[in-house]
TrEMBL record:
Domain of life: Eukaryota
Provenance organism: Oikopleura dioica
UniProt-listed InterPro entries: Ub_conjugating_enzyme, UBC, UBQ-conjugating_enzyme/RWD
Protein's UniProt name: UBC core domain-containing protein
UniProt-listed Pfam families: UQ_con (PF00179)
Domain UBC core: start-end pairs: 3-154
SUPFAM superfamilies assigned to the protein according to its UniProt record, in alphabetical order: UBC-like (SSF54495)
Gene3D superfamilies: Ubiquitin Conjugating Enzyme
Amino acid sequence: MDVAGKRLQKEIQQLKKKPLDLIWAEPDPKNIKEWHYCFEGPKDTPYEGGFYHGLLKFPAEYPFKPPAIFMYTPNGRYKQNERICTSFSDFHPESWQSTQTISTVLVGLLSFMTEECPNAIGGMQMTKMERKKMAKESGAFNKRNSQFCKLFPYLLERM
């Protein structure tokens, strides 16, 4: 197994020992360099009650190069199926530090999701009401995705 694979295996173990609040992550069973994640929308935000599925694609050079980040579930903050621009994504490899982990990436992404940053690549502007509507519809959207259902069966009853 290469350096990236070894590091990602270690991160699987860390996430299982210390789960994150409102965030779940599972590697693709066929490709350890592709991790699916799901956020639960934080209370007192337009995303409350929503579940948001996305993907982290890790390069062969991980942890020395950052992942590409995508969001699949309609959410009103990030465009669907487009790379998301953050300081910890492959848009800004100069900002990446090899000490960053899947946990720090996902916590940062959820934090950015609840902030307004209209100029971000992959970002969108929508009203709170539109985002609340998408939050209500997110569970049904995710349940139609067979890959989501296979990776996150323990979340299906919560939606």
